[in-house]
Fold:
Amino acid sequence: MRTAQRRSARGRPPGPQAAAPAGRRRPARHRPWPAWCAALALAVALGLPTAVPRAQARPADGTATALPSLPAPDAHGLDLTQWREVPGFDGRLGEATFLTDAVFAPAGAGKPSIDPVRKPVKVRIHLPAHYDPAKRYPVLYLLHGGAADVKQWSEPGDGDIAHTLEGTAFDGIVVMPEGGKAGWYSDWPGHTDGNFAPQWETFHIRQLLPWIDANFATRAERSGRAVAGASMGGLGALKYAAAHRDLFSSVGVFSGGTDIRPAAAQRTVNDSLWFYGAAFSWTGLLDGTYRVTGSTAHRMETVFGPASGWAAFNPVQVAATEASYKAYDGRLALYAGTGESDIHEWNEALHAPLTARGVTHRYCTGPGGHEMRLWQQDLRNFLDYIHGSGTRSCPNGWAPPTS
Structure:
């Protein structure tokens, strides 16, 4: 990937990248973690709040909406350990912490190097104003990018979901799950050097999605669900849309990876598995057993399986099939800046077969790079597009391609 393309909002690598800094070599052995990493991790650890028992948010006081009670906190393979209000969001942003067998699963010939294998994983849930359990709300599953975490879309100064949604046609629930710094929204068929593997798709689709429907006032059918994401999360949205046409009705992709076959995309995956491996948030970030060593081909197969099976989920290949993304006709939107180099090229490569197959979709492009400030406007535009507000122009001063 070109060095210029690696610049991103708040210093994060772009997608589908979750890579180490440009120019870093891919060693065959573990490298010691820099001293500053350990010091930073220790500082963060000392500042973390002590876990508290599962509890409800403070009562509504007339100016804030209290978090709702959860009728099925332990369900669908998820054990809830904490349900708390995230301060500063007027009672509308909750954070759930789960234990699940999907994060992580033992894999490989040896015993997993971590004990216990199950690690706490978080999901943030943003509720509409004046949330009413007697109503039914649409749900957006919003996926974070590479090198990021569960907080990316919600924190002020980053995705700032509360303000990003203001003035849009969307009045629903936003689910922002952890997906791993280099999880690639996949059930890993391979494993880390420590003999365990994340099963992110299982966690998101088979466990979290029905858990959300069991605990919140959702429109629990395909027409009530959308999936979207930025960077690595854009690839995840397209992967989930291809595999689960019965669950989602709309797809939004912001600077997303659309093809895992090009050499530049594979270098990104390769680097991410050396630098992050199966780590998420601060879990495993300084532990070499979470990493995957070996060749690029080995690392690609660890996350995605043999190349012979990629056509089932790799977006550009899916788009070229007869089925294509026709289930999302008129409800699929792509956004990519021309300053994003490879990513723009890959989105062009997805736009072409979608057009050839007659899949109506929005494709917006123009000057700009891999930046959260653009993704926020992309998200607003996508939500207005799929909820029929009448907004038909592209965001960011962009426009559809002329050819």
About this structure: The first strand starts at residue 78 and ends at 85.
